[in-house]
Here is the input.
Amino acid sequence: MKVTGIWVLSLSILVGAVSMGMAEDDALAPHVDPLTGALQVPSNYTDWPTLGTWTHTKLVEGEPVIHEYHVVYTQPETISHYRKHNRFPDGAVLVKELLNAETMAMTTGPAVGHATTIKGWFVLVRDTQGRFKESPLWGDGWAWSLFNADDPRKTVSKNYQNDCVGCHLPAKNLAPPHAVDADKWIYSFGYPVLRP
Here is the structure.
C-alpha cells in the first residue's frame, strides 16, 4: 500500500512538473514556431473575448463610406492581467481580424456598414523576454505579423519596422500615462474591456 501510494504521489509530481514545464516552454505555442519565431493565426481566436472593434472609412464622392471592419480578440487571461497590472502579460496574443465591409442606406441611417468577407489578420504577441532577436518580425516588446485571408499560417510581413510600426506610431501619443513603453504601441484606449 505504501509503495503504491508513493508511486502515485511520485507520478502526480512528475505529471505536474511536466505540465508546468510544457506550460512554460509552450507559453507561446501553438502560435509561434519555437525555432524561428514565425507566427501564425491562432485557429481558436474567435473563441476568445473581443477587445474592441474599429471601422475604417474612405471618401467616395465626398461621402465617408465604411469599407473595412477590424475586430480585435485576445485570451481571457490577457484581459484579467491587464486590468490588474495595467500592462499586457508576456505571451499575450492580439488578433485583429480584418473584414471587408459594404455600406448601404437603411432605415436606421443613410450609411450603415456591415462586414462581408475576411480580408486577413494582424497578429501581435507580447514579448517581455526579448526572444528571437535575429528575427526581423520581433522587436520593441512584440512579435508582429500580417496575414492575407488565403494563408493564416504564412505572414506577408518581412520586417516589423518597415511593415508594421508606421500604423502604430500614433498609438504612442494616445497611450495612457501608465502604459509601459512596449504597450504604447497598442491602441488600448479603444478597448474599454481593459478598464478595471
In short: The radius of gyration is 21 Å. The mean pLDDT is 84. Strands lie at 50-60, 63-74, 93-106, 109-126, 138-139, 142-148.
